[in-house]
Design brief:
Blueprint lengths: L6 H29 L8 H21 L2 E6 L4 E7 L9 E8 L8 E9 L2 E7 L5 E9 L2 E9 L1
Antiparallel strand pairs: 1-2, 2-5, 3-4, 3-6, 4-5, 6-7
Length: 152
């Protein structure tokens, strides 16, 4: 004996289908609003006005020919090694940095650096566990380079 397909069956199918779609949309929206840390730039018009200057600074930075290595040591201190185009350690090397959580969940961590010998620098503060985007400014004399390193 077969059962008849009734309007109640169709109603149950529609509720199950659309209920699933709506539930997935709510879950995805919830995750999206909880994981995005904010804006990339506060004012896109002002950022567009600065774009050509940023490109010129990037070209000038590339022409320096510096080689930079940024890493995290065993004690979670950020280390920087920088050398000139001819492979020599940079004289008078200094740096400043801010470590930012990629999703904005943690507070920014300002980093100060001290000489570590052999033309290297080591952060005074340890980097908290996890993944961080470290916004660095490395200086040698009148020249400077800016970079963003993904460290974990």
């Amino acid at each position: 004996m077969t059962r008849r397909f009734t309007g109640w069956h169709m109603l149950a199918i529609l509720i199950a289908f659309f209920g699933t779609v709506i539930a997935v949309n709510f879950v995805m929206a919830w995750y999206a609003t909880r994981t995005f840390g904010g804006t990339v730039v506060d004012n896109s018009y002002v950022a567009s006005q600065e774009f050509n200057r940023w490109l010129a600074e990037a070209r000038a930075q590339e022409q320096l020919g510096w080689t930079k290595t940024v890493a995290v040591d065993a004690r979670r201190h950020v280390t920087i090694a920088a050398s000139s185009a001819d492979g020599q350690p940079l004289a008078g090397l200094s740096a400043s940095a801010v470590a930012r959580h990629p999703l904005g969940r943690e507070a920014d961590v300002p980093l100060r650096f001290a000489p570590a010998g052999d033309g290297r620098l080591r952060s005074v503060e340890a980097l908290p566990a996890g993944r961080w985007l470290v916004h660095l400014t490395v200086r040698s004399g009148a020249n400077e380079a800016r970079l963003i390193e993904n460290l974990s």
